Automatic annotation (TrEMBL):
PROSITE patterns: HTH_LYSR. Residues 1-58 form the HTH lysR-type domain. The keyword Transcription applies. This is LysR family transcriptional regulator. Pfam families: HTH_1, LysR_substrate.
Length: 300
């Protein structure tokens, strides 16, 4: 059954005459009659009752026309929606980002993108890097702003663009003697209690892999799901934590001092996506916009 056959039956039903329907469709009357007869033979049931020069829908014909009109309307709506996508008038991008990114950078990014592409819908989720990469692999999100841990393989086949690099510093309570140092060497953490976010955040893996490579064993407490919570515990002198310099400046707990680590350790936030941009124009626009937002030179 073809779309043209649906149109023929609906038009004949509307006109009540094969002759008038043929004129409306710019077909010859015999050609249209043959099309209707062939369809009825294919279905094994009459759609029209023919009385002299008039035609009337049978009971089966009424059901056919009702469904045919719905199908034709849906096909028209689908064609119009695809035209919107082709003309970049519609689309959706599901974004996942680290909490600190959502606080510092993402609102401005989304605001600018919405101004340029107002018909593309954006949704935002806050998660740790490991969770973001898993969500990307499971197609729960389209793009992630996440830290990639160099000591672990990437999840699935992903594309990644480095956006910004930030120094990782130690967050120390003001009463801890290490708070008075210009920089803390990792060896000095051997007898300290470390408070790190859980494994959903790749920051933990970066720090612990550096300590492990130096043979440093510490008492580690992975009891927090957010960097903010780790810093709150440091503020109560429960131990030492780690965060980006941007996070330390943003949260600013009164009893927490951020101290550089020696040798310096940094983290890079990447824009990560999995899909082929050629087939997802909305995502392509977002990736390009984000790359320009962070002044990253990227060829898509």
């Amino acid at each position: 059954m073809e779309r043209s056959q649906l149109i023929y039956v609906v038009t004949v039903a509307e006109c009540g005459s094969v002759t008038r329907a043929a004129e409306k469709l710019h077909l010859s009357q015999p050609s249209l009659s043959n099309q209707i007869i062939h369809l009825e033979q294919e279905l094994g049931i009459a759609l029209f009752a023919r009385v002299r020069k008039r035609v009337h829908l049978t009971e089966a014909g009424e059901v056919f026309v009702r469904h045919a009109q719905r199908i034709l309307n849906d096909m028209q709506a689908l064609a119009e929606r695809m035209e919107d996508y082709a003309a970049n008038r519609s689309g959706r991008v599901r974004i996942g980002a680290l909490p600190i990114m959502c606080a510092l950078h993402i609102p401005e990014l989304i605001g600018g993108f919405h101004s340029e592409y107002p018909s593309i819908t954006l949704t935002l989720q806050e998660r740790g890097s490991a969770e973001l990469l898993q969500a990307l692999e499971q197609s729960e999100i389209d793009v992630a702003f996440a830290i990639l841990n160099p000591s672990e393989p990437a999840v699935g086949q992903v594309h990644s663009l480095p956006l910004l690099q930030s120094e990782i510093c130690a967050a120390v309570h003001v009463d801890n003697p290490l708070a008075r140092r210009d920089a803390i060497e990792l060896e000095q953490l051997a007898d300290q209690t470390l408070i790190t976010p859980n494994q959903d955040f790749n920051l933990s893996g970066i720090i612990l892999s550096h300590l492990s490579s130096l043979g440093i064993s510490c008492q580690v407490q992975n009891i927090c799901s957010q960097i903010d919570s780790c810093l709150a515990l440091v503020n109560k002198n429960m131990g030492i934590s780690f965060c980006s310099r941007a996070s330390a400046d943003y949260y600013r707990y009164p009893n927490v001092v951020s101290v550089s680590i020696k040798p310096a350790i940094s983290r890079t936030v990447y824009l990560v996506y999995k899909k082929d941009l050629a087939f997802y124009p909305s995502l392509q626009h977002f990736v390009r916009f984000a790359a320009e937002f962070w002044k990253t030179n990227v060829i898509l």
